[in-house]
Amino acid sequence: MRANIFLFIAIVLSLLILVGSLTSLQVNVVKNVSNSDKLMHIIAYGVLNISWLLTFKERNINNRKLLISTVVLCYGIIIEVLQGMVTNYRQADFYDILANFIGISLSIIIFNLFLEKKL
Question: What's the pTM value of the predicted model, to 2 decimals?
């Protein structure tokens, strides 16, 4: 039951990131987009990775954390490529991928220190 809740959360977060990344924001929420955008990437992909790690926490899969984190990173790369290919209001950015990687890396540390044994 608990894994189902984590799975639901992980899927919803994945879809929210996809839609948020490929749709146009009509309102300029923050003036300094470059810095706040990178922070949003770090947080979004960190939370996304933790949600998937929690989903598969009880599964006995070899290299589970590395596999999940690699898939989440690839998901972010695919979204960046799509931004450059299918939208005219967003562009692919290597630094967004780097921010995703940082968020994923931090989430593994947080997961190992605080969540793996407690939840």
Answer: 0.88
